[in-house]
From TrEMBL:
InterPro entries: LOG, LOG_fam, LOG_family_nucleotidases
Molecular functions (GO terms): AMP nucleosidase activity
This enzyme's EC code(s): 3.2.2.4
Native organism: Candidatus Aquitaenariimonas noxiae
Transmembrane segments: none
GO BP annotation list: cytokinin biosynthetic process
Catalytic activity from the UniProt record: AMP + H2O = D-ribose 5-phosphate + adenine
Name assigned to this protein: AMP nucleosidase
Amino acid sequence: MKSKTKTRRPYIVGDEKIDRIITQLANGYGSGEAAQLLREIITTAIKLGREGGDNGDLKLINLSLKELRYAFRVFSPFRDVRKVIVFGSAKTKKESPDYKLAENFSREIVKRKFMVITGAGPGIMEAANKGAGPGKSFGVNIRLPFEQRENKFIKNSPYLIGFKHFFTRKLIFIKESDATVLFPGGFGTHDEGFENLTLIQTGKCRPRPIVLMEPKGGIYWKSWMSFIKGQLLKRGYISEDDLKLFTYINDVKEAADYVENFYRVYHSIRYVRGLTVMRLKHPLPKWLLRKIKKDFSDILIRGYIKNSGPLEEELKRNEYPYLPRLIMKFNKSKFGRLCDMIHIINKV
């Protein structure tokens, strides 16, 4: 019987001369997988030019690519440094307890070798940039006709990036950060908060700590959680496990502990050929591995959780070959439970 293995159709323009020039260009600036990706990017640009009748489409793609390229260049030297994104209202006043809390949290988390990312504007964003101090934070600004001017603590920093479109800005927020801290705010704060939760819930973002912060005695996030439990959970729109994707804290050191401890043993996660690979900073003791196998079998499609070294695909890309792993056939639906497992692993 003949094999039914599908062969991938070549991604080309279809003009032999143009395709040859594209290949030469790509090979001149990269090799292996990098050259292949560059070839496809250039091919996409040519296809857009040939197929599109609207210059507006080209302008959108062009500006988005430029913005992303510049952002990648700014963040690239700091890829090995953990970062916390801080969201909250641009309208928060300097004398507000929320402002003071955001400032103090950023000051504390920077002491623990993290960096801070904000939207670069006033209010909570200003407080976070101020607390982080010079050279310890990034500003990812959005150009708006009102309100959103960069604050004085990030204005002249080389780590200030401007965006025209929200979607590219939001991509950078998620891609370049490792934790999310939300202070009281308006539509934008809720938009970012719900997007973070949605991306983790659906597996489109790596697990991360998400913290809702407000001063002691505050009811902003408590009211929000009452709505989440009373409407979303009660109606079955989310599961009980989804509530484990975030936590509520109003103490600076406790919040910083929560963020820092999320990466105490857990390092990162990768999906390879149907397997979920969880990288750890050190091997787990045998008793804990037995406990995890027993307590978290419900998150697996089949099989069990086991120790592993780096997989072949990881070795090819030199992805942390020195770290021990746990591998499993995760069902990719119970991400709240997966975060729960990470918290248990980090207690060792």
